[in-house]
Specification:
The complex is a heterodimer of chains A (614) and B (84).
Chain A lengths: L26 H8 L5 E5 L5 E6 H15 L9 E5 L5 H12 L2 E5 L8 H15 L1 E5 L5 H8 L6 E3 L1 H5 L16 E7 L7 E6 H15 L8 E3 L6 H13 L4 E4 L1 H6 L2 H9 L4 E4 L1 H10 L14 E4 L6 H11 L9 E6 L6 E4 L8 E5 H7 L10 H5 L3 E5 L3 E2 L4 E5 L12 E6 L6 E2 L3 H7 L6 E10 L2 E6 L5 E3 L2 E3 L1 H9 L9 E7 L5 E8 L5 H19 L3 E6 L14 H14 L18 H7 L8
Parallel strand pairs in A: 1-10, 3-4, 3-5, 5-6, 9-10, 11-12, 12-13, 26-27
Antiparallel strand pairs in A: 1-2, 7-8, 8-20, 13-14, 14-17, 15-16, 18-19, 19-21, 21-22, 23-24, 25-26
Helix pairs in contact in A: 2-3, 4-5, 7-8, 11-12, 16-17
Chain B lengths: L2 H16 L22 H15 L14 H14 L1
Helix pairs in contact in B: 1-2, 1-3
Classes of the chains: A alpha/beta (614), B mainly alpha (84).
């Protein structure tokens, strides 16, 4: 990176150009305008020290130069440029070089797990093949993985940023990506087996950015963003690279790894530069709450006006605990902003009203489970309340202007207020489809533009509440996992045949989620049984990076649908029942089982990947 | 690379890992961080935080990929300490 300076001062909060709220036809033009000002990106290291400053002015120059170098490769317009998306100035430089050169950037994960060499290489390989990447770039640290992953694939160039900087700059005029072209490919969910690249057009993302900036966050002069979200995640990319840039705001970045190691750095950064806007999944807030020691800290969070929450089920208790712990440091719980969205809709679908904190709808949990209806507990008599199990659901607000939300039953019929069903979204921010996957696209996107989100929820007076999600997705610490991926690893074991493993998620005692895999195994020898279950747990930790409870059951235990497919909802129900029979505490199923009768496999395949904000 | 340095690091790592180990799991050279200690990704980050603070190093995240046993870990740390 040539942008390093001797005297490091972060870019100022004030951009010194009139605020424009993403009213640009394309991302390249958004950067051209931001480059007229003084704001930009700032990169902090794991000790909270400012490492690199990248004002938009410099980003524009460097991205344009790099674009002319990329043109030396003579790739066809729209070719995919895969970028291992570390939190580093090279990422925005390559991303915007693609915008100027007319190529499609594809951010790839830069997350490595303990002992996860093989798994990571396989994941990269799948993504590179599926996106038909023409070239791929990674830092020197990540290059060995990239080289391994591209072995045998036909790419025109694979290298470090320096490799690309050595290309000859072409003396040509740049023709940036236009609004109808694909601005980037966003691979959703952690699925290594079924990666799906969301194609977002320039028009769609600009529309979403305008909605986020103008309506969701009501950005104004004096705002400053702080983010530790990964660039390969839509909330990190669209929410905290593209949105600030399209509103000429400065951003202070902390690498995700450094946040995970030292969560308090997030709060220090908010304090030092008086950040006003930051988002995180609930577990990010939880990590902070756990680590902050009130007597030993000096934070000033009084400027933090938007504390966005998304990416996994929002439990109000986590937000309450954070607010309580950080109140002495000026944190205002009214800053909490619940939102709902997904990569398939660029990023955001809906925001709760700003400045009111997280609002909850208190409903009767049993009624929801039995009737798929959210009956408010307000209005119940004291006697009735005593016998009612109350569930608090966070209000995710109303859709962005120009967007519609409809909740439908399994036959596609729109449902009335407070009736639970599948959430459908339509509007200008919705993707064009999944790259190279017409079948998957057709499953979620109707001819008249409705996106089936696969999430389960209900509307009340236009406000959206999420009660569950696409039935099978497992979300742990903000990361999404497809049950198929977990099951695949089990089925690689000689003892486990295809269809013998079913992965689900169950509520843990503290209300978070735990992954469970129920595996059919005939062996009665205890040594062999415990050997298999230990091995499976280890493989899941190695390959997927999460703890997973392994339950071995006898043959023919796993419930199936009428067509013989695994019923994960049934597996979950049975698992919870077995736990209960063993005298465990009663836990509520995560979602009310919908009597769809639809082939479960269809639901799995029809469900889009990454979910946000519940 | 000296043996005494290796042993020093091993002892410190041992002390540190004991907090993460299930009861009765001894920390030995061939103890597998995943299989024996059951570390998931968040606990790994907690643990790395302590390692970085104790040894005053920056642990390259990529080293995680080839990390399996306590011995791997001690050797990695030793290498980082020597190069810093």
């Amino acid at each position: 990176m040539t942008g390093a300076m001797n005297f490091l001062n972060p870019t100022p909060t004030e951009s010194h150009v009139p605020l424009r709220t993403a009213d640009f036809p394309s991302l390249a033009e958004a950067l051209d305008y931001a480059a007229k000002g003084t704001s930009g990106f700032n990169f902090y290291d794991g000790r909270g020290k400012l490492r690199t400053v990248l004002p938009y002015t410099l980003l524009q120059q460097e991205a344009r130069t790099l674009a002319k170098r990329l043109l030396a490769l003579q790739l066809t317009r729209g070719s995919r440029v895969a970028i291992i998306a570390e939190t580093h100035p090279d990422f925005p430089r390559f991303f915007f070089a693609c915008q100027y050169a007319g190529y499609t950037p594809v951010p790839l994960p830069a997350a490595i797990h303990l002992g996860g060499h093989k798994a990571y290489v396989e994941q990269l390989r799948g993504l590179l093949a599926k996106s038909q990447a023409a070239v791929a770039v990674a830092s020197a640290e990540f290059l060995p993985y990239l080289l391994e992953a591209t072995k045998g694939l036909e790419l025109k160039l694979v290298g470090t940023p320096q490799t690309f900087d050595e290309l000859t700059e072409q003396p040509v005029e740049l023709h940036p990506l236009q609004s109808e072209e694909t601005a980037y490919l966003q691979y959703t969910s952690g699925s290594t087996l079924f990666p799906r690249g969301v194609m977002v057009s320039g028009a769609a993302v600009m529309h979403n950015l305008a909605g986020i900036i103008r309506d969701g966050l009501k950005v104004h002069n004096g705002d400053r963003c702080v983010s530790w979200l990964p660039y390969y995640h839509d909330m990190g990319l669209v929410g905290f690279v593209l949105a600030p840039l399209a509103a000429q705001l400065s951003v202070d970045y902390l690498a995700t790894r450094d946040f995970a190691m030292r969560p308090r750095l997030w709060l220090s950064l908010m304090t030092n530069n008086q950040g006003t806007i930051s988002f995180g999944p609930p577990f990010g807030y939880e990590l902070c709450t756990r680590r902050v020691r009130n007597d030993a800290e000096q934070f000033d969070l009084s400027a933090w006006r938007v504390a966005g929450v998304g990416a996994e089920t929002i439990r109000i208790e986590i937000l309450d605990a954070f607010a309580e712990k950080l109140a002495p440091f000026g944190f205002d719980r009214k800053a909490f902003l619940a939102s709902y969205g997904m990569a398939e809709c660029s990023l955001a679908v809906s925001f709760a009203p700003l400045g009111q904190g997280a609002m909850v709808d208190e409903i009767d949990a049993e009624h929801l489970s039995a009737q798929q209806e959210a009956r408010p507990v307000a209005g119940l008599s004291a006697e009735e309340l005593k016998n009612t199990h109350t569930k608090k659901l966070v209000n995710c607000g109303v859709p962005l202007p120009g967007h519609e939300i409809v909740v439908r039953d399994e036959h596609g019929m729109a449902l009335p207020d407070r009736k639970c069903g599948i959430i459908h979204v339509r509007g200008p921010s919705v993707m064009c489809g999944y790259f190279g996957d017409a079948v998957a696209t057709a499953r979620v996107l109707s001819a008249d533009g409705w996106l089936n989100t696969g999430d389960i929820g209900y509307l009340h007076k236009g406000n959206l509440m999420i009660t569950g999600r696409e039935k099978d997705m497992i979300i742990i610490n903000g990361r999404n996992f497809w049950p198929q991926d977990l099951e695949f690893h089990a089925e690689q074991q000689p003892e486990v045949r295809p269809g013998d493993a079913s992965a689900i998620s169950v509520p843990a005692e503290d209300g978070s989620e735990t992954a469970v895999m129920v595996v059919q195994y005939r062996e009665t020898n205890e040594t062999k049984r415990s050997e298999l279950s230990n091995r499976l747990a280890r493989i899941i930790r190695e390959e997927v990076g999460i703890s997973c409870i392994i339950e071995l059951v006898s043959a023919h235990t796993l419930p199936r649908t009428s067509s013989g497919k695994l019923s994960r909802a049934g597996t979950q129900r049975d698992y919870l029942r077995r736990q209960e029979e063993q005298g465990q505490q009663r836990v509520e199923p995560l979602f009310a089982e919908q009597a769809t009768g639809k082939d479960e496999a269809d639901l799995i395949l029809a469900a889009p990947g990454r979910r946000h904000a519940h | 690379m000296t043996t005494s340095q290796y042993n020093d690091i091993f002892q410190q790592v041992e002390g540190l890992l004991l907090q993460y180990a299930p009861q009765q799991v001894p920390i030995q050279e061939d103890t597998d961080l995943i299989n024996d200690l059951g570390l998931d990704s968040l606990r790994v980050m907690d643990m790395l935080n302590e390692v970085e603070d104790v040894f005053d190093i920056t642990y390259p995240i990529n080293d995680l990929a080839s990390l399996h046993t306590v011995k791997d870990f001690v050797l990695q740390i030793q290498k980082i300490v020597e190069n810093s």
